[in-house]
Design brief:
The protein has 153 residues and is an alpha/beta fold. The chain has three helices and eight strands, in the order E-H-E-E-E-E-H-E-E-E-H. The strands form two sheets. It has a four-stranded mixed sheet, with helices on one face. A four-stranded mixed sheet has the order 5-8-7-6, with helices on one face. Strand 6 and strand 7 form a beta hairpin. The two termini are 33 Å apart.
């Protein structure tokens, strides 16, 4: 196993009915890269990891009653996954759409300086992609949004 220093402190897990198909699709649509794939003696996916930038995500199967894909629970999600991209968010969105992602919100500039879009994958997981496009101070963001912001970096 890689040294813990090269692994992020947080790695979300996303569960699929068909995790092998998910690996293929996440590569094609979002540009994620497989970094580890473990299969059992029958060729079933036991564990997998994908990288994007300095991030890590686990892709797995529905392995117990309490672990399900949105496709198995009427499309419900209890979270979304935010991914920061470095370059051309509009092209990233076009690539995802061409691969079959449902675009919930097209690329748009946000009050905090990012340009973001929202999409679902074939099993209904919600993904949010963002790219920093301009520097914004906390005061500017508060003024633009009407919100009080604490912890601005």
């Amino acid at each position: 196993m890689a040294e813990s220093a090269s692994r992020p402190a947080l790695a979300p897990s996303v569960f699929y009915r068909d995790p092998k198909a998910a690996l293929e699709w996440l590569e094609k649509a979002f540009g994620f890269e497989r970094s580890m794939v473990i299969t059992d003696q029958d060729g079933n996916l036991a564990h997998s990891e994908m990288r994007v930038g300095d991030g890590l995500i686990y892709v797995g199967s529905e392995w117990t009653e309490t672990v399900a894909s949105p496709a198995s629970v009427g499309g419900k999600n209890t979270q979304s996954i935010h991914v920061h991209v470095q370059h051309d968010i509009d092209e990233h969105c076009a690539r995802a759409k061409a691969a079959g992602a449902v675009i919930l919100q097209g690329p748009s500039d946000q009050f905090y300086g990012d340009r973001t879009y929202r999409a679902t994958d074939p099993e209904g997981h919600v993904w949010v992609f963002g790219q920093a496009v301009r520097q914004v101070s906390r005061e500017e963001a508060e003024q633009a949004s009407g919100l009080k912001i604490e912890g601005w970096m």
